Amino acid sequence: MTTSHYIAGRWVEGQGSDCISVNDPALGQPIAELMAASVAQVDQAVTAARGALPAWKNTSASERAAYLRGFAEQLGQRREALITLQMRNNGKPRHEAEIDLDDAIATFGYYAELAEQLPSKNRDVPLAAPGFSARTRLEPVGVVGLIVPWNFPLVTSAWKLAPALAAGCTVVLKPSEVTPLIEQAYGQIADALGLPAGVLNIVNGKAETGAALSNHNGLDKLSFTGSNSVGSQVMRSASAQCRPVTLELGGKSAIVVFDDCDVGQAVEWIVAGITWNAGQMCSATSRLLVQDGIADALLPRLQAALEQLRVGNPLTEEVDMGPLTSQAQWLKVAGYFATAREEGLQCLAGGKALDRDGWFVSPTLYADVSKDSRLWTEEIFGPVLCARRFATEEQAIAEANDSRFGLVATVCSADLERAERVADALEVGHVWINSVQAVFVETSWGGTKGSGIGRELGPWGLSAYQSVKHVTRCLG
Prior knowledge:
This protein is α/β, with parallel strands linked by helices and 476 residues long. The protein contains 15 helices and 22 strands. The chain is globular and about 75 Å long.
């Protein structure tokens, strides 16, 4: 797989110095190799996007919507191949890979509809002063760099790519070097649809490629999803150019369970919030706050549920949870298991790497974890759940908000008035009440505090790629 970069409407061989080894995490073995894009090739991609911008931003809304619907249809036609690739390169169970694909398809369909509504967004602005008229134009922000992570490839790129194209922007997409294969489908679809050359460009690589893109002075905006450490570097690059940036970063989210909950239902919500995608989610609800009155009944049921999960290779077994996606992440999670032992944490389930081929760990539960523990305060990005008890609603809110992150939270209570009240008090960007983490394209996605800047999805996702222009005219 040497022709791994899509630049100016052509597939080209990588000319960078890095060789990217792509692995099957269930086996711990490589399945492909590709050469990274060079700095010069990143420049070529940005130049191609800049050259394609004038024509693309002046296409009609209906034309852009037709391309977006084409992306949705083409993704559906590649369904089985893309699902299998998600399972093989990410280690996702089949049901998770299917939801990922459906999410990407829905995203392109949704932004096709919003694109068709764009003409109505230009409107007259009433002025109090006589003798003048004013109108508002929503214009594409320009050439955007999109940097996406390895935990939800295809999905996160759809969340960025679809609204950017709908707004009339041209893009340079850099997938993660851990999971670069599935994003190639977007280049293949662009070819199949006859998308104008340069509107979509894809460059693969490691840190050097990402830095070349984020530092490029030909970009008008950056949108990044990933770790806080890399996000801060992206933000520094953006600040040097004084250009806008959207950052979707880490989380250390809370799930609050009140004592009026049905225990079995609460266990289902808790397990889903920490083991989906093997816990490799910025939105993982890895801090469990459970009220005193239900804790003694819930924790043993939760322990049993985690121990009963089927962990294995999704391509050969019927599993509930697959492996961690990379060896680096496996080593990181194993390091937190060692920290837990050093801290003397009470382990009710898991707490170890599994003795088998591939990068597997056990779903893990620690009880009565101190607020000073690293496992309580730091993002682990694995199926590791820490539990604490609380007495009152006020205490639950205070402890849930006591974090440098603010991405999501879940509230579980039979008292819906209380659940809504707590949801309003939580300092996060998205709250679920009595639910698994169902994410809909019509809603917003993003966080507060250290969890990032800006919002994706919904109309907010589209506005992130639009610039507001006012035209004022003297009538005299």
